[in-house]
Write a structure and sequence with these properties.
The complex is a heterodimer. By secondary structure, chain A is an alpha+beta fold. Chain A has helices at 35-46, 58-74, 95-105, 115-118, 125-134, 150-163, 203-212, and strands spanning 6-14, 17-20, 23-27, 84-90, 140-144, 168-177, 180-189, 199-200. In chain A, strands 1, 2, 3, 4, 5, 6, 7 and 8 form an eight-stranded mixed sheet that branches. Chain B contains ten helices and 14 strands. The chains are: A alpha+beta, B alpha/beta. β5 of chain A pairs antiparallel with β5 (136-138) of chain B, so a sheet runs across the interface.
């Protein structure tokens, strides 16, 4: 029989607010901040020093911040690095940065493509950034969907655990385009880690967690 | 019983033609599709698809013309792959998985064109084939195509689908040319993977499609996927690992799954982009994996780096090597240019093959590898 998988933690970020494991963890005191300004204030809240954060594009900052709050909520466990996967998805791919790169080449008179921008014109760079921070070396995949779909997620992630040596995986949705953004990351494990029991990983629980932000 | 994953049919489209057979002919003759091409006030060595031929092929298909260029290429390639097959995406036991890094990147200049969204493109293509299941698209840099093959393997092996059509595609565009150029990653000549004088990538465009199924067809040489894995360097977002440990990890994962050791691999189709750092990293990873004596090539010298199509085009090339017991020269290679020497194929020859390995690596530190085996 196939073993149950567990959701051990989650992090939602939207509307200038961060929820960890169902509880509000950080809220900006400033109204209607730009995503970048909000993510910078969330970075300060984390209380970490990580110079690479400041070089990231907005999508990577969003994914990175969400992953850091998720890890904090998990109690920053020791990970089986080569058996830890990252499986993310979104709908806007890297379009936010793609548009910046496109603007820099539209006019040959004002032509200024930059390698520091171009490197972020791929959605999976955010996976790379989270891997570097946490020394994660396991399975990697970035999928594009129109919307977050719990049933598709459960099928894909279950398959990953059934077909590979993966023991735990950072999963979820990281989407950002202009002023619109949404992150929903969750941690899947084959067994309770750091004494956390979590929720059984199935479509019902994942859909409920995504929609209500309640970790019950 | 766990289903086996069989290769049923495939198609390759690139500068070398619109069929797999045309590609094999070029590999045998050592002919490249890379040409000098002027754009953005500079000359680049690139591998473009012949536009007139594309229009001709598209007209022959006689479908509604309101598709973007890349969508036409996907539809053509998938149609050719499904020709004479009973399997079709309109049946609910069949899934379509696409791979692409940039999709319809040529429409990004136009404001509000929804087709710039990767899922919109995916849906357009699935709609053409009246797909019964929601299609999927992987966008994981230059491992996208190889990863799509790995996903097909997992979907069939786990019993979720009986048949999977995987198709990878990307265009040659000012977007990617200007970006790779800003990175100083483009070569001044046709690319020369693993060569001492290599100086960068030649970009290309194309689509590669494979139909996989749990049902095998009556044939002397049945080709199966027997292993696949991905990994991350956790080192740098744009620079390849200095040790090759990430790629080594992906190779080990695929070998373990296939139950094979390094001596079983008869041919390795490397990523081989011809940038100094990439090829160096790969050579180190192949040494770590004990594959330094295995015949290796990079197909980039034939049709350039086709990004999200690369993994699938090169998987097909590796599958055809395996099926035909032939190995093809690594075009552009003359003198060993990596610090840990590997066995680069210099000329076309016959070689009895049982298992072949395809590897890929990309920005974001990602790596993937997949193994194809021949069952007599």
């Amino acid at each position: 029989m196939k073993k149950d998988l567990h959701i051990l933690g989650s992090c939602h970020i939207e509307n200038d607010k961060i929820w960890v494991n169902g509880k509000t963890r950080y809220e900006s005191s400033v109204q209607d901040e730009s995503p970048i300004a909000f993510l910078k204030s969330a970075y300060k809240e984390l209380g970490i020093k990580y110079a690479k954060f400041h070089k990231m594009d907005a999508l990577c900052k969003l994914g990175f911040i969400a992953s850091e709050f998720l890890m904090e909520g998990l109690g920053r466990p020791d990970l089986p690095t080569t058996k830890t996967g990252i499986h993310l998805c979104n709908s806007s791919s890297s379009l936010d940065t793609d548009m910046r790169h496109q603007e820099s080449i539209n006019d040959l008179e004002k032509y200024y493509p930059s390698p520091a921008v171009f490197v972020y014109t791929l959605p999976n760079i955010v996976i790379g950034e989270i891997c570097i921070k946490n020394k994660i070396q396991g399975e990697n995949a970035f999928f594009i969907f129109d919307v977050f779909n719990a049933s598709e997620q459960v099928s894909l992630i279950r398959m990953l655990f059934e077909e590979t040596d993966t023991e735990c995986c950072l999963c979820g949705w990281v989407d950002l385009l202009k002023d619109e953004y949404e992150a929903f990351l969750y941690w899947i494990d084959v067994e309770p880690r750091n004494g956390k029991q979590g929720l059984i990983f199935n479509e019902l629980n994942l859909e409920h967690l995504y929609k209500t932000k309640k970790f019950v | 019983m766990t289903p086996a994953v069989h290769m049923i049919s495939n198609n390759m489209i690139s500068s070398l033609g619109f069929t797999t057979a045309e590609h094999i002919e070029s590999f045998r003759l050592g002919q490249t599709g890379i040409i000098p091409f002027q754009t953005l006030n500079e000359t680049f060595h690139v591998s473009p698809i012949n536009q007139a031929l594309l229009e001709q092929e598209w007209d022959a298909l006689a479908v509604q013309p309101n598709y973007e260029k890349l969508e036409k290429l996907f539809i053509l390639s998938i149609s050719k792959t499904l020709e004479n097959q009973d399997i079709h995406p309109r049946n609910d036991d069949c899934l379509i998985i696409l791979s692409s890094t940039k999709g319809n990147i040529d429409v990004l200049k136009q404001n509000h064109n929804r087709n710039a969204y990767l899922y919109e493109m995916t849906r357009n293509i699935a709609r053409h084939f009246e797909a019964a299941n929601r299609p999927q698209i992987i966008s994981t840099a230059c491992i996208s195509g190889t990863l799509a093959g790995i996903m097909a393997y997992r979907y069939i092996k786990s019993g979720r689908y009986k048949h999977v059509v995987v198709s990878g595609g990307d265009l040659l565009s000012d977007f990617t040319l200007s970006g790779f150029n800003a990175f100083k990653a483009l070569g001044n000549t046709d690319c020369k993977p693993f060569d001492k004088n290599r100086d960068g990538v030649s970009l290309g465009e194309g689509v590669g499609t494979i139909l996989f199924s749990s049902e095998s067809q009556n044939s002397d040489n049945v080709i199966q996927i027997t292993g696949g894995a991905s990994s991350n360097d956790a080192n740098h977002i744009s620079g390849p690992s200095r040790t090759g440990d990430g790629l080594h990890l992906a190779i080990q994962g695929a070998m373990k799954q296939a139950g094979l050791s390094q001596n079983d691999i008869g041919f390795l189709s490397a990523h081989g982009t011809a940038t100094p750092y990439n090829d160096e990293m790969e050579a180190k990873a192949f040494h770590l994996s004990g594959l330094q004596d295995c015949p290796i090539n990079s197909f980039k010298g034939y049709f350039g780096h086709t990004l999200g199509a690369a993994g699938l085009l090169e998987c097909i090339a590796a599958i055809e090597s395996l099926r035909r017991n032939e190995i093809y020269p690594s075009l552009g290679f003359e003198e060993m240019g990596v610090s840990q020497p590997v066995n680069i194929i210099k000329e076309f020859r016959k070689k009895e093959l049982h298992h072949v390995l395809k590897t890929a690596s990309g920005f974001g530190g990602c790596n993937a590898s997949i193994i194809f085996s021949k069952v007599s």
